[in-house]
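Regression report. Comparing outputs from two consecutive submissions.

Submission 1:
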Amino acid sequence: MVVTEISLVGWLVSTTGTATSTLLFFAIVGIMLLGLGIFLLHRQIERRIEQIGRL
C-alpha cells in the first residue's frame, strides 16, 4: 500500500501539467484513501502486537 501511494504521488507530481482534471481529481482521492487505509492498517497491527505482548 505504501509503495502504491508513493508511486501515485510521484505520478501526480510529474504529470500535474499534462493530466486532465478528472485524472488529477481521482489521483488525489486515491492518495487520500490509500493514506487512510495505511493509517487504519497500522493501528490494527499495533493492536495485534499489544495483544500478543499480553499473552
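Submission 2:
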Amino acid sequence: MLGLGSNLGDRRAHLQAAADTLVRHGVGVLRSSHTYDTEPVGLILDQPEFLNACVEVETELGPEELLDVCKAVEREVGRAAGGPRHGPRVIDVDLLLLGEFEYSSARLTLPHQEVTTRRFVLVPLLELEPDLRLPGGERLAAALAGLGDGQQVIVAGSPLAI
C-alpha cells in the first residue's frame, strides 16, 4: 500500500500522474481509495490543505527498489529536491505497507513508522481494506479509533482512475 499526497497546483492531477507513473515503472496499481482533503500535520502547519489517497499495488520489487521507484515517481511528477520536512509539495509517494512484510534499513521502515498516527493515512487505507492489520496483528481500525480529535479528513472526490 502506498500513500499519495499533494498540496500544490492541481492536486488531483498530481495524484493521478503519480498512479500512472507507477504503472510505467512496472508497479501494478490495483485500486485506489477516494481522495480526501486533509489538514497539514507535522512541523509546518501554515500551508495549503493536502489531497490524499492510498493505492493498493502489486510488484515483484523488494522494499528498497520500490522506495527507489517512489522517489523516481516524485521527481517525474514534479517534486523538487530538498525543501523543508513536512513542507508544501507537488507530490508525496510514501511506502506504507508491503503486506505482512516487516523491514528496517537506514532509508526505510515497514510498516511506515507513522501509519498508526496519521488519520490521512488510516482513513483511505481502511477504505481499501476495513480489516487491515499490521504485521503482528494490530488492527488499524483500533489505531484510528484511538486518535481522538484533530487531523480533519474529508472525502473530496472519487477514486483515482486505474
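Expected: both submissions complete independently.
Actual: both completed, but the second showed a warning that disappeared on reload.
Relevant detail on submission 2: The chain has one domain: 2-157.
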